[in-house]
Write a structure and sequence with these properties.
Elements (H helix, E strand, L loop, with lengths): L51 H21 L9 H8 L3 H7 L3 H24 L5 H17 L2 H13 L5 H27 L7 H22 L10 H11 L8
Helix pairs in contact: 1-2, 1-4, 4-5, 4-7, 5-9, 7-8, 8-9
């Protein structure tokens, strides 16, 4: 039965199929999968009808991921329990374990969802009109603006991705997975710039350089100061550095 907030009423701490300790142990029979869109449409991407129960489940899933993101913005992964995620999302531990296999599964699903959101933003920027350099600025500014919307989570995630690489390999895999997709999306944009004679060089090196420039400024801020956010101001610097690095032979540097 759903309460007045549209959330399933289950007593907090209900055993269900969950783990009472709230640790990252997988639960037998638990369901998982890629994050679903928060809009919870009545039809799936394939055009199939989605039941009300499935739509509610998708909304609950997103609410749990949002709760996890809020907690991960405040403290490290290993200091967070499933009980805390349950309290933050207002769902029982047992219900959470019906949707996710473990605490690790929640974090991995969150990274996939946020990565998909960022990819959607990239696609929107790349579909625009204008000169190559203008569109590159729009792209970089969009990435920074997206990260600025989640500054604490971004800062903590950069730290976590290095610290948890060995203990949570699925986290690193999800991160790299989304980065590879982003590279695939950006590649045609760079190919067009090369075709227009605006830039020149190796495509793979271009993608790696842009990534290094974008994340480099964030890393410098986090290492040398307490600044978290306002990274969009670095967009013009990144674009100028990129254009000079890959200027065609004889072009301005």
């Amino acid at each position: 039965m759903a309460d007045d907030k549209g959330r399933l009423e289950e007593p907090t701490g209900a055993s269900g199929s969950g783990s009472p300790s709230g640790d990252s142990r997988p639960v037998s029979g638990a369901m998982t999968g890629d994050p679903r869109p928060s809009s919870a449409p009545s039809t799936s991407d394939s055009g199939e009808h989605v039941s009300r129960k499935e739509r509610e489940r998708a909304m609950h899933r997103d609410a749990i991921l949002e709760a996890a993101k809020n907690l991960l913005s405040r403290k490290p992964y290993d200091q967070i329990t499933v009980q805390e995620i349950a309290a933050e999302s207002e769902f029982s531990v047992g219900y959470i374990y019906k949707i996710f296999q473990s605490k690790e599964d929640i974090y991995v699903s969150l990274i996939r969802k946020m990565g998909d959101d960022l990819i959607g933003m990239l696609e929107s920027s790349l579909s625009g009109q204008g000169r190559f350099e203008e569109r590159l600025h729009e792209l970089v500014h969009g990435v920074y603006a997206w990260l600025d919307a989640n500054p604490a989570f971004t800062a903590n995630h950069i730290h976590e991705i290095h610290c948890l690489a060995r203990t949570l390999p699925r986290l690193s895999e999800a991160h790299l997975e989304r980065e590879e997709i982003m590279g695939t999306k950006i590649r045609p944009f760079f190919e067009k710039g090369i075709g227009e004679g605006v830039i020149a060089g190796d495509l793979d090196l271009m993608i790696k350089t842009l990534k290094a420039l974008v994340w480099g400024f964030i890393g410098e801020d986090l290492f040398h100061s307490s600044q978290r956010g306002n990274w969009a101001e670095y967009a013009p610097i990144v674009v100028r550095a990129f254009m000079r690095t890959f200027a065609p032979e004889g072009g301005a540097r």
